[in-house]
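Lecture notes, unit on binding sites. The following record was shown on slide 14. It pairs a sequence with adenosine-5'-diphosphate.
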Amino acid sequence: MTRILFYGHPLPGMTEERLPGKLVVVEGTDGVGRSTQIALLREWLEANGFAATETGLTRSELAAAGLKKAKRGHTMGDLTMNLFYATDFVDRLEKQIIPALRAGFVVITDRYIYSLIARAQVRGVDPQWIRAVLGFALVPDVVFYLKIDVEHLLPRVLNSRGFDYWESGTDYLRGDDLYENYVKHQTQLIQQLDALADEYQFHVVDANRGVPEIFRALRAGIENAIDDMQAVTDAPPPARAPRRSRKPAARPASRSAARPAPGASPAPPAVAGPPAPSDPPPA
Ligand SMILES: Nc1ncnc2c1ncn2[C@@H]1O[C@H](COP(=O)(O)OP(=O)(O)O)[C@@H](O)[C@H]1O
Ligand SMILES: [Mg+2]
């Protein structure tokens, strides 16, 4: 159950006080391992009977294509770029996040307003202004912050996608050495995120570790966050088949395996429910 609270002005038209889903944010700098962990968390949630969905920056119908184009052209100023990201964010809030929370999903978001605030602040944008612009953001149930040192971050980025223009801060740093820019920009971003962790009370997870250790920490945190939610486990238990041999079945038991062997006394129906299409009509 998410309590509807906004950081600033409420989103127009929101009248509910609570929604049945949960809003879980995974924050952290570029290349720290957010996508890796979110994929694992989603799989784990679904395997345990919780409907889960994912969203992230620049994934809105309204602004994603325009934002990508704007980033390719490097033509917009900081304020315009921040307003564009805010547009992307509010569109996803209205059309993806809130509807999914209403439907009882655990919504995992790959970054939230905090990355937008951190990126704006390292570029010298007024901290009060950016917070006011993003004030319509719903307060999440939990924010996991994957906290990493630049020394641990470097090999992850070098071994995967390499240094990106924006992730190296080349749009605002004057130097032309991509490596130096990257270290400088990421050091500043991490400092900003560390300060935001205090301001917004993030759940800090040490991301200098390996994937399994980080996953275990996140899983424990999510278990705690969703402890008042009900897992969907209403699938009927499989009907018990009388054992014919001690050999383990090669395939998963199907409904037809529940039919008694010829000549055996019929077993009492274990599960009440409609017959499967392949079942023969009752004699
Ligand atoms: N804990 C970890 N230790 C080492 N490498 C990692 C770890 N987590 C992710 N990686 C690797 O780092 C790279 C970036 O991970 P990714 O999940 O795409 O990061 P993000 O989504 O935060 O940008 C990938 O090659 C991934 O396999
Ligand atoms: Mg990613």
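Take-home: Confidence is low (pLDDT under 50) at residues 245-283.
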